[in-house]
Amino acid sequence: MNLHPLLLVLCLSSAAGAADLAAWTHRQTVRVTQPGLTRLELESALLDASRTTGGAPFHDLRVISPAGVETPYIIALPRTMRPTRVDAAAFKTTLNPTTTVLEFQPPDAFTIQELVLKTNGENFIKAATLEASNDGTTWQTLSSGEVLCRQNGTERLRLPIAAAVWKHFRITIDDSRTGPVAFTGAQIVRELPELRTLPTSATIRSRTEEKGATHLTLDLDTSNVLLGTVRLHTPDLVFQRVSTLLNTTHTLFRIQHEGFTAEDLEIPAHQLAAKREVELVIHNGDSPPLRIDRVEVTRHTVPLVFQADTAGEWRLYIGNAQAAEPRYDIAGLSDKLRDANANSATASAVEANAEFRKTATAPEVGETGAAIDVSPWSFQRVIQFSEAGVVELELDPAVLARCENDLNDVRIVREGRQVPFLAIKPGLERERALTFVEVTDPKAPSWSKWDITMPFPNFPGSTLLLDSPTPLFRRTLSVSENIHNEQGHFERILGTANWQRTPGQTPSTFHLPLYTAPRAETVRLGTDNGDNAALQITSVRVVYPVVRLLFRVPDTEPLHLCYGNRRAARVRYDLQLVRREFETSTKVAATLGDEEKLPGYEADPLTRGKGSPWLWAALALVVGALLWIVAKMLPKQAVK
Known about the structure:
By secondary structure, the protein is mainly β. It contains 6 helices and 47 strands. The protein folds into 5 domains: 5-76 and 302-356, no CATH class; 85-195, Jelly Rolls (Sandwich), CATH 2.60.120.260; 202-252 and 266-299; 359-427 and 546-597, no CATH class; 429-545, Jelly Rolls, CATH 2.60.120.
């Protein structure tokens, strides 16, 4: 397809202007040998570097001319929504004693990749032979022993063929064992060039069986893969399963009929897999899980089309999560440009952008906040990082244990002034192994109890992970701790949950959620066994949430993290207005130094109730004085 030359000049020759590319992480050099409309298939390594978080896929891509000017482009993504089927012409049915013969023609000359029959028939399975011809006289057999069926929700009415141009088709259906089925028409599936796919790497990273479903984690080797199809390889002979992949639900099946096999093991995904790993779920119901040897995955190509006003070395830049989606005038011509004749170009390997600066990926904000006096705070730790920019600091459990639950008392300080920060809870969790010992309670002989030692008091645990080899049980477990403070001594329940396992069930780790984080260093896990054998526990782990702080600094001068102040007011930073920009920026990792005590240090809240020696001495004096006064007020006993 050719565009009017003037139209191309008006739409393509205008560039967006010189670009500052310090915020892009990767680049690729493209060699253009002659000016004009140019087409290039983008490599997987380049697409893997894309960091778009919404809008059109890969909209952080920029095309830069040899003169350093940003140039408009289109990405010719597959038009999967365009109709791909057309009704066959001259459809004719001939009924013979043992066969049904269907004859039809494509309505026009085009490359054909599949035929689909139409019928209202139900519950049938037939063997078929497919033939094709260009003159209607000389026929060539394309396939025999094809199985057509519609049974129990499974349907196979399509006949794939090698892509070719044919003028006549004939399908002979075997009716020797069952009565004929009324076929009412056929559809021709065109081969669309933009729907062509290439094989791509994929491995089964993990497999789990859960609640009647098989969960497969597929590793695609890169992110941002424009998936075409996913095909399963299994030795199982007869089955029917519903599968879910990304937003696609598809029925997989294999059936046997008189020595012939019909199957559909290919999932038509045709979607962007933004992450490197995708989950394929196969719903087994009450049937045993399928044996799956491997998967074959295809991907769509991603062609880039742009107008090269000069030959030479052009550059592609990608990898900027904050890049705005470009608004090029040529976007309205996408359908015309995707099919237009274009020159091809070659590209070098994808490389890191030498101009990249982390400071360019975050908005300009003030690096310091209000003045602060840290003397009321209890602790501080040096924040260590190697370069300026947006710094990301993950708070370790030791810090979280000494902070208020809502982090109101956390401050980042430099030379008496606050550094504004954002507290981020990304939904991640980490775990630690715990030591535990079984304890015997003579007063409760039917109970199993374990004392579990946390890494330290106030550990910010949210869940206990328990493992048991016991094959059959149903128990209610509870976790508690003993608290000693100003109000006295009491037991606090941290969490309860029901856990059961039946024979044949694959042993799995049990998650026991905690209502609140433990304060004591030792917690007790207990369950009533009733008249059953004691429950066995082989390992205990604790899960705690990940909490990170994001802040921006112009240099690498020392900073301190201050925490531990129950009277601190809630922080209010304007940084919340640019939260998204900070979260998507390229970050500098930071770590914490050793903990130091500040003037406001207070004893651990678990031990504060014991009081200081001076307090106890004062109380003793007061009690003694009261006793002396009472003694003076009592009447003296007469001497006999």
